[in-house]
Amino acid sequence: MLAAAWVTAIATAGLLAGAIVTARYAIKTFRAQEAQLGLLRKQGDDQESLSRQQLVVLGLQARQLSQSLGQGEVNAIKDRQVQAEQILVWQEHAPRDPRISQAQYATQSYFDPITGPQRPEPVVVAHVQNTSGKPVTELKYRWVLGSSLHGETDRAAPLLADTQDQDVQEVPPGADPSMFNVVVYFRDANQVLWRRRARDGVLDELPSGEQVPHS
Question: What is the pTM of this model?
Fold first, then answer.
């Protein structure tokens, strides 16, 4: 009886010892797994943070590239305008055609047999000066009253560097001289077509392939 009790006690102690060892192993394994999980979480957080930083950098680079391209386009436009800006256009009003002298008005060409000498008609004189150092071609004067065309003149020869040209047009009868203006077209050395208004000096680059207008 006593021997059986000892056997039972020893077996119980063995089981308890095994349970303790198993528990210690389980705790050790759990802690190792917990540490590994924590490391994985940290790595994940670090990767997420790095990804966010990379997105910020990529976004900044994209904006910088866009701005760079935009500035490049602006610079290209400015480069194209260098010569065109140096083609000066202006107009002035005169009581008569300055190319005809007062003496000429008194000749038979300007004398009406009934009314006598013709009264000179008021005119607008358009001036174009090339200060760009390069020639321009296809120079054309288009005279407008409001939005209506009232004459045009083509210059056959190129307008060379440091030279001027002019055109004279009578103000339409009964029209307000201040509403009678000239618009000048020309093509620069790079074959770009431009339009400049004498009234306010506004310069416009016309689309590629567009031709000088003709009535």
Answer: 0.61
